[in-house]
Specification:
Layout (H helix, E strand, L loop, with lengths): L6 E6 L3 H9 L6 E7 L3 H9 L6 E3 L2 H5 L6 E4 L6 H10 L4 E4 L6 H14 L3 E4 L6 H12 L5 E9 L19 H17 L4 E8 L5 E9 L5 E7 L8 E5 L2 E5 L8 E6 L5 E4 L8 H13 L9 H18 L7
Parallel strand pairs: 1-2, 1-4, 2-3, 4-5, 5-6, 7-10
Antiparallel strand pairs: 7-11, 8-9, 9-10, 11-12, 12-13, 13-14
Helix pairs in contact: 4-5, 5-9, 7-9
Length: 330
Amino acid sequence: MKNGEPIRWGILACGGIAEKFADDLAYVKDGFLAAVSSRSLEKAQQFAANYGPEVKAYGSYEAMLSSGEIDVVYIASPHGLHHEHTLMCLNAGIPVLCEKAFAINSKQVSEMIQTAKDKKIYLMEALWTRFHPSMAKLLEILNSGVIGDVVHLMADFGFRAEYIPEARWFNPVLTGGSLLDIGIYPLFISRLVLGNPKEIKASATFAPTGVDMNCSMIATYESGATATLFSTFAANTDTTCTIYGTKGKILIHSRFHETKGITLEVEGQRPEFFETERLGWGYSYEAEAVQADLRAGKLENDWISHQHSIEIMGLLDEIRKQIGLKYPNE
C-alpha cells in the first residue's frame, strides 16, 4: 500500500457473499477490487469478468497472495476454513478482513489473533452490521436515555433453507448450523446494546446431519436486563430486533442486521420513524473502516476489536457446549 494511492482489495473464495462485497466496493472511496481467487481458475475468471478487465483472476489463493497486486484481502470462504485461510494470508504478509463467524472455536481465534500480533499485521472480523449508519442511530437513541433503562431485548434471524445434507448450511464438515451462520447476529446486537451476559442458556433442535436447525438463547445481564435470541433454518422469521425500556421501546426493522429504518416509541408520544442509509448491500461501510485503519497504521479496529471477536466466539463456544454441537474438524 503506497501513500496517496487507492487501496487494492483481493477476495479469497468466490461465493455469494464475495459477490455482494465486490458489488459494494463500487461505493468505497479510495479503494477498489484488484484481484479475486478461487481453487478453480475458471470460476475466478467468471467472477472477475463481472467487475471489469482490470480485475485479475487467480486459480489458487497462494498465487493471489504472492502476486504483489493486493494490499488487503477479504476472506469469503465458509467459516470452517477461516482459520486456515487467515493464517495463510497473515503468513503471506497481507492484512485480513475475515467474514464472520471468525472461526470454529476460541482456540482457532486465539491463534489467528496471536499470529496477527506477532507479525504486526492487521486483522478484523467482518461483522459488517456494526458499521451500518443504522447502528450509529440506534446508539444515539439509546444514549439519549429516551426509552429509560433497557429491560429486555428480543432478536431473531431465520429463513427457510432447502434441506440438502451436503450444502454448507447443513454439512457438519463445513461447520453448518444456524448458530454460527446467522445466530451470531442476534448475539451481536444483544452484546452491542447490553454488553456481555453474566449468564446464557441455550437449547436447540437438530437437522438429520447433526447440526442445529433451531437455536434459542436466553441471556441475563448485570444490569438486570434479559434477552431472548433465536436463529433457524426452518422458517422465515421476522428478523427484527425490539429493545424494551422503562419509558418506551425501539424496533429495528427487518432485516435488523442490514436495516434501513428504526421506529422509536416513547410512552405518551407518537411513534417516530428514522430512515437510515444503506448503500448497496451494506458492505462498503466495513471496507471503508478497514481502509481508514490501514491508513492510520492500526493493527485492529476499535469497534470490532480482537477482544470483541474473542468474546463473541467465547459465547458461541458456550452455546455449542450447552446444545451438544461439536464439529468433526475440531
